[in-house]
Model the fold of this input.
Amino acid sequence: MSSNEISDKNLPHEQGSAHGTAVAENPFADPGLPPHKPRIQDVDEQAAKRSERTVALLFTVSMLATIGFIASFVIFPVDEIVYVWPIGHVSATNLSLGLTLGVALFCIGAGAVHWARTLMSDEEFADDRHAIEAAPEVKAKVMTDFADGARESAIGRRPLIRNTMLGALAMVPLSGVVLLRELGPLPEKKLFHTSWKKGLQLINMNTNEPLRPEDVVVGSLTFAKPEGLEEDDEDFNNKIAKDALMIVRIQPQDIKDRRELEWSHEGIVAFSKICTHVGCPISLYEQQTHHVLCPCHQSTFDLSDGARVIFGPAGHPLPQLRIGVNGEGNLEALGDFAEPVGPAFWERG
Amino acid sequence: MSTTTDAKRKAPAGERVADWADGRLGIYSLAKANMRKIFPDHWSFMLGEICLYSFIIIILTGVYLTLFFHPSMNEVHYHGSYVPMQGIRMTEAYASTLDISFDVRGGLLIRQIHHWAALIFIAGMFVHMMRVFFTGAFRKPREINWLFGFLLFALGMFTGFTGYSLPDDLLSGTGVRFTQGAILSVPIVGTYISMFLFGGEFPGHDIIARFYSIHILLLPGIMLGLVVAHLILVFYHKHTQFPGPGRTNKNVVGMPLLPVYMAKAGGFFFLVFGVIAVIAALFTINPIWALGPYRPDQVSTGAQPDWYMGFAEGLVRVMPGWEINLWGHTLVLGVFIPLVVFGLVLAAIAVYPFIESWITGDKREHHILDRPRNAPTRTALGVAWVTSYMVMLIGGGNDIFATHLHMSINSITWFVRIFYFVGPVIAFIVTKRICMGLQRRDRDKVLHGRESGIIKRLPHGEFVEIHEPLSQSQRYSLTAHEQYEPAEVGPAVDENGVERKLTRGEKLRAKLSKGYFGEGNQVPKATAEEYREISSGHGGHH
Ligand code: HEM
Ligand code: FES
Done:
């Protein structure tokens, strides 16, 4: 650092603090602490008495409010709803408990502050500051103490001890790190697959019935899940987080993307409902334009053009599920998604 | 012998207890140093107190909530007293939060106080930090306390986020999903972090329980330690003070801890608590019953995080969706860059004191605060930072701004993208000019006196305003600030005639120093000579 040190020339000079005589010479000298000005309460006992009564009144109101709190707690049933203008319908307990508690606390505070401001001495004093840094003698003493201690431990003379100790201390936390391995499984290929596979029927989320092509009308947005996944299943949330489907019908001649048309069933297309930005479910459909919008950060995808991103922060299109119709005339999947659903990640490629 | 027993009998009970404690803890020596410790007074010094008190309120109410909250993702069917949710499947976490809200008397109030106090806590830290920044209170010897405060602010955001996620409602679950998506964007290790944090794929069955121990134990524990360390340092360094008559770098002027400061500070705790209780009674925050339990395939529109996360939300919203696919890997820049910028913007707060002290080369202690105008470059940098932060808050609410202002989301997004870069530059220039203007005004006031508002007609017909000279203490206060000279790089040849190589660091520092203190970057304060010349020359007016 030392060669890099800049000189002290640029540092300002300390403002000379001059009292008394110097003031006349230096128009900017520090005149010192102004004399204390008494308040009305300091000179007029009547005013002081008034302050005293105000403080006592505030403390009394606080006591009454606490009684009010206990009374409200006892009186109001927990489910009583009251209408209070202008806030509307609110829980009676919440309102009464909160207001009484608030008043009880506030009045203690107001009383204490009023007491301090009007009745306690408001004379200002000056305390000296002392440098945080130790004096040179203190530092010298510490340095010799340290050198003595270090010499007596012989750590400098016996590097073998020092090095093995450092090695042991460096390694022992590894046990802790290894234990953290149990926090969760390795990613492996988990993010690449969903429950969808060839032959699984598409189940309408609303009716819980298999979807038939005629159920999907132009202009409506239908949500679907794979057959066999029930809301009461233990891992329903984990599954639906990847399996959720969004189905719309588009006139085949309006579909601009060749593969999309191939993977559709007569213009019925199925896309992942999970936004490719950071994974919110997509919920809004604009039927004229076939745009869907993610409400989280407004990524917009064009479902008539391979679910291309046309606005917002998403980085790639929504994956499409290839669908067909089975023997019973229900919509079914013709395989899993060809690419991972949801947000992008390093291994996605 | 008899005299000592006499003395003992006479000592009141309180004193005897104190004697007992002193024999074991040495409390008299402690009290001698601290009981009448002087604290300077200024409204802005209360900001830190607001943070401390809301933190205490959060701990008190949080402990109460733990008595009723079940941090479990086991699914149950709801059968509590809130009718619209009857029979609906939800996690125990969500069900127990409904119970706290509808079946525990006062439970809703405590939940609301906890949440409101959290919002006020973080807002308080933000403003308190601004106060410390703009007055230069972070300078030596207080840099470490600045770091403690910074850590409290950063950890406060994460504590708030984990708490917000605990009820497992539709809104907070969406926030957790957002976080998981952001974690996935981290190159190489993203999927591993996600799997380890969630105990498997999203959402898994562990995240609420894990957030719970982070929220109520790990982070508050660290924060409590930091708060204590922060306060010990405030005591140890003694509080800074604004310049004024009798206030020097070597003293501290104010009123004693006992009784005035204790009454005011203690009273202020009750004021803060009281106000938060009233807010909690009147304004509903986070009505989780209106949102429903979390499901990964459902979402509520207009999803917004708590305000302190709005800035991160904005970064994620306005960033273009860049993804780079190379050699079988994906670099998700569209999400990862916001994540990195988020870290950098916070880190900028942490390192600023060290940058400034490197530029000034000043190793002295500073206990007198700067008025923001007297440090124009620092003030301008601070305002630029706040501007970029605010622009991103707008970005985080782009949908809300769009609907309220009847503008398209597209134009708001582009406004934010451009202003994120242009706004801070404009803010910097404008702030610096304002500071210089105010410095010039101070200088004029010192030299020519205060405008009295009285107009006088001179014999030859000209109208002038009478200027009243300032008092000695006003003149002192307005000229007490120190002004640095810009640092020179020094001669390229040293005293022995040997050529000295200037390092790049030295050159950079000289340049920055000029930007801070060079000509045109501060107004030289009035000198005594100028003052005497003017006041002897033409009296009270000009
Ligand atoms: C230190 C800063 C803390 C912050 C900023 C914070 C913030 C929050 C927030 C925003 C919530 C959501 C509340 C809601 O609207 O439902 C929450 C919930 C919760 N917090 Fe904290 N908290 C903090 C400390 C603590 C501590 C120390 C405890 C306990 C010892 C605690 C216990 C809880 C519990 C049990 C819940 C869930 C209950 C519920 O949501 O009703 N918190 N916290
Ligand atoms: S998650 Fe859909 S836009 Fe961000």
